[in-house]
Design goal:
218 residues, alpha/beta, 4 helices, elongated, ABC-type transport auxiliary lipoprotein family protein, lipoprotein, ABC_trans_aux
Length: 218
């Protein structure tokens, strides 16, 4: 009985001591990242007509976690002490809008059915490590569909992988910044070749019928 009481006393003392170590301590706030300023030069492309852009992303990219995985693992993880300033879906949407706006207006909604609509879907936005952990890349995957009126003009799949300068969260963020800009520029180049023949045809008009009086006056 004495031994049991002594054991319980020691256990209680250790529990209180460990709890006391955490009293008054405030965990450090997570480091927060964004995509930085849109300062990279854009490809030299001709001006294009206004487009409306709709944007969607996989549910995992609606959270602010910085996602990483090893190789083709089906178990992505998020850094515990690193976050995005906004959900990746919002950060990527804004960066794509900014860079596409260099060639022509990007609207949030279609003005009418004659306004081409670009439908963009973000499937991946993560840091991918090699199996040995010695290297990693920032990977972004987009699918885009261009709609004119009620018809699908064309579609494309854009996968960009940029090497990370360091094998940590900061390196992954730097790689994803680069990959996002490259993906946006590839999208702009695709639009430049797709829209010209498909959605920028000159409007055709039917001449008005001249009245007899107008004919006589001519």
């Amino acid at each position: 009985m004495v031994t049991r009481t002594l054991t319980l006393t020691v256990t209680l003392t250790l529990t209180l001591a460990l709890a006391g170590c955490g009293i008054g301590r405030v965990p450090a706030p997570p480091s927060v990242f964004d995509l930085g300023l849109d300062a990279q030069p854009a490809p030299a492309l001709p001006a294009r007509a206004p487009i409306a852009m709709s944007f969607q992303a996989s549910p995992a990219l609606s959270d602010t976690g910085v996602i990483w995985r090893v190789g083709d693992s089906a178990a992505p993880k998020a850094y515990a002490t690193y976050r995005w300033a906004s959900a990746p879906s919002e950060l990527v949407r804004q960066r794509i809008t900014d860079r596409l706006s260099r060639q022509g207006p990007v609207l949030a909604d279609r003005v009418n059915l004659q306004t081409p609509q670009l439908q963009v879907s973000l499937s991946q936005f993560e840091q991918v490590f090699s199996e040995d952990g010695q290297t990693s890349q920032g990977r972004i995957l987009l699918q885009a569909v261009l709609v004119n009126g009620r018809s699908v003009v064309d579609q494309t799949r854009i996968l960009v992988q940029a090497p990370a300068p360091t094998q940590d969260a900061a390196g992954g963020v730097a790689a994803l910044r680069q990959a996002t800009d490259q993906a946006a520029d590839q999208l702009a180049q695709w639009l430049a070749t797709t829209m010209a023949p498909a959605t920028m045809k000159p409007a055709t008009t039917t001449p008005a019928t001249m009245t007899p009086a107008a004919k006589a006056g001519g």
